[in-house]
Amino acid sequence: MGALLNWLDHRTGYRHLLHHTLYEPIPGGARWRYVWGSTLVFTFTVQLITGVFLWMAYSPSAQTAWESVYYIQHQMEYGWLLRGIHHFAAQAMVVLMVLHFMQVVVDGAYKAPREVNFWLGIVLMLIVLGLSLTGYLLPWDQKGYYATQVATKILGVSPAVGPELQQLVQGGSEYGHHTLTRFFALHAGVLPGLLVVFLALHIYVFRRHAITPAEPTKNAKFAVVLTVLFGPVGMFYANSLASLLMFAIAGGAGWGLWQLWLRGWDAQTVLLIAAGAYFLMNLAFAPLAARSARRFKPADSYFWPDQILKDAVACLAVLAAVMGLTLYFGGAELTAPADPSEEFAAARPEWYFLFLFQFLKIEWVEHMGLQFGAIVVPGAIMGIIVLMPLIGRWKLGHRFNVAFLSALMIGIVWLTVWALRSDWGDAEFLAARERAVEDGDRTVALANAHGIPVEGAQALLRSDPLTQGPKIFARNCAVCHHYEGHDGTGREPGTEPTAADLGNFGTREWLRSVLLDYKEHFAPLERATRPDGEPVGFLSGEMADWSETNREFLMQEDNKPALDALIEFVVAQGRRDDLPQPDPELVEQGQEFFATTTWPGGDLPSFSSCADCHAMKPVGADEPLSEGAGDYYPSLTGYGGKEWLREFIAHPEHFYGDYNAMPAFGERLSGEELELLVRWMTGDYTPEASR
Amino acid sequence: MSQDAPSRPPVMPRRGFLVKAAAAVIGAAVALVPLLTGILFFLDPLRRRNRGSAEGGAASDGFVKVTTTDVLEAFQGQPEKFTVTADKRDAWTFYPDQRIGNVILRKASEGPIESGEDVSAFSDICPHLGCTVDYRESHEGFYCPCHASTFSLNGERTNVIPPRNLDQLDVEIRNGNEIWVKYERFQAGIADKKVV
């Protein structure tokens, strides 16, 4: 083994390289504060590994992008975990990058001779932001699609070459196959390649100048701040023995206060005393922290193993956070497949771009135009950041840089919180967001049940009665009819109903209500008018009279089984699979009561049976049971079933003649829309709703 | 050690060992988590057999209707290729009624076709390395143009190139005159007939 390694070293000189890499001297010893760069390299490595594996299953085209991500997420072993890690590690990378950047500025690590490395870092930062922007689109779901639209539209307003730039990035004038192939090439090829190159340069230049050692006075200040804020945990930075002492004091005091609380002291008082005592203790220990930190002159050490251990522990913490988020959220989200014809009112960029989104919504910024808010201002800020090393040469330059960065960070946090708060208070946003998630879940359920057609997953939703039925209902029917009190999609209807609520149409409850409480059931018709301007007469019509006259009689104990049987018979005509299946024996009995006025409790008070007015040809019968009494009496053959409902919606005048007040939708709805509406209303779809 | 090794060890050797071990173990662990997740993900195809093969359009027992007895009888014992059409699922995509392959059918008995035993059915995929075999009158049997495998009319190999005979498929006559074949694929290149 040794001989082999010697041979290899002789040919490659790997030992020198390894030695050079591992034994980088660290003046003042290993520190936790040096770990940020390493955690960034680590997250990038995680992204490379998970990204390459995702690549093996991802297919960039408008018809396969969502579909392949669905397959990764819901069908392939550990796919959700892999995608979740990639998703959350990307966010961790942005957070770590900001921390790294802030530390560099605060410590003045951009000053000579490290200016070039600072600029290399800026380039890396832009590449990482580019990676997250391009990655957001790749699943081709509603969320990514509409959020990225905003980004490319902004590109389109850049000066001079905006539209051309936008077309180049999109691979055409609209989003399509080539948007995905281009974004994917950027995301998985160009940008990671550039990142590797610039990262190598960054590390090379960094090694050339070594770490920026903290000055003792700065160390002391830092220790004081840490100790005042975090008590024993902060003290650990300067003096571990004192830290232990503080832990002991805090523990003792905590125990004492707890006892007081147990003895019935007011919780608020106890907490107040605890907080006060905590800060008093911290303040008392602060001078010790400063002294220890100033005197602290640890031995110089090397990258390996001291700093690497700290780096590894920090990476472990990052990984734990990423895994925790992945497990908590069950992996990354996948909303409904992108569909330009489906509105999406909840388009938002990834959370770390929210500040920019909110900035563009500020009134005076909007007033200044998109170019100002989206290009000029961010460009100017970027310009100042790039100039930081030069500004830093000026006497007050460093203070300016720190102040500028602080103001920028406060602004970003403020804008982000503002954006989140206004979204959480925005019912429309929340509803749109929930719909996108629900549509996503529904598409997944459909894909699991039926597979995805060649046209893509979009077609699944477009041909799904459960998804489209409510929308068609809301657009066409909800002006007059409500659906369980809402407009079909769950939204508050804009108008008062002028016709029956159709939420339970064709069910046993519906029929019972029509027979016993006709006037109540159709009460909204009071407000309805016929096309000729006359009020609708149903509420004073024959059926209303029948219901009123027979109500008491039908509700008598001895007629109850007969009424149940009659309802069972009529329900059976609809042949609906979504309702409890009718009992054949009851149906047979019910058919009798449909056509007779002789009931168990005597004669029907109205002296007319259903069959006296309504046409009926029972399911499976060769001959009609009754012919009906004319144009104004709706046929009940197949009542509540798909065929009956289709015919009724298309041509209600065939059922009510001149009395009809409902528009004929045969012309207004396409055959496909009518079919989707009818199938939704009769519960004819698979898989069943899971909500 | 090369010459620019540290002149004095910065830490005590014993503690150094513990730190080194901890650094190496933790470092390896954080790198292994994404790598192992990726590898498990990559191994997915081994855990889902037959997800890519014919489903749906075939009956639940895997039989597919190929033709009718009168059509096959008209060929009078000559082998003939028939296209197999069935629903196909490729990863996420569901293709209804796709041409998924061919079978070679031949009336193998005297008299009319009455049961599956009167029909011989072979997959046209060569058991050698998966090219397509064809009936050649000059060979009085089947011939594979890739590596010159030859088979007799009843599917037995007639040279040593293929490792086994042509893959025979189960046949059933259903609904009086319909010929149904159980369409399967087999591992190429081995002596055993093993479904993939």
Write the layout of secondary structure elements.
The complex is a heterodimer of chains A (691) and B (196).
Chain A (H helix, E strand, L loop, with lengths): L1 H11 L1 H9 L2 E2 L9 H20 L9 H10 L4 H28 L8 H23 L4 H15 L5 H9 L6 H33 L6 H15 L1 H4 L4 H23 L4 H29 L5 E2 H27 L24 H8 L1 H6 L1 H22 L5 H28 L2 H24 L6 H6 L2 H12 L31 H9 L1 H4 L20 H13 L5 H15 L9 H11 L3 E2 L2 E2 L6 H4 L1 E2 L9 E2 L14 H9 L2 H4 L14 H11 L10
Antiparallel strand pairs in A: 1-2, 3-4, 5-6
Chain B lengths: L12 H30 L1 H4 L15 E6 H5 L6 E11 L2 E15 L11 E5 L10 E3 L4 E3 L6 E3 L18 E4 L3 E5 L14
Antiparallel strand pairs in B: 1-9, 2-3, 3-4, 5-6, 6-7, 8-9
Provide keyphrases for this structure:
heterodimer; A: 691 residues; mainly alpha; two-stranded antiparallel sheet; 30 helices; 6 strands; 2% strand; elongated; B: 196 residues; alpha+beta; three-stranded antiparallel β-sheet; 3 helices; 28% strand; disordered N terminus
The helix-strand sequence of chain B is: HHEHEEEEEEEE
Mean pLDDT of chain B: 85
Q: Into which percentage range does the β-strand content of chain B fall?
A: 25-35%
Structural class of chain B: alpha+beta
Shape of chain A: elongated
The profile of the biggest β sheet of chain A is:
2 strands, antiparallel
Rg calculated over all Cα atoms of chain A: 36 Å
Structural class of chain A: mainly alpha
Helix content of chain B: 10-25%
**Morphology call of chain B:** elongated
Question: What is the end-to-end distance of chain A?
Answer: 64 Å
Q: Main interface pair? A: A-B, 53 and 36 residues
Number of E-type strands of chain B: 9
Estimate the helix proportion of chain A, in percent: 55-70%
Q: Using only CA atoms, what is the Rg of chain B?
A: 28 Å
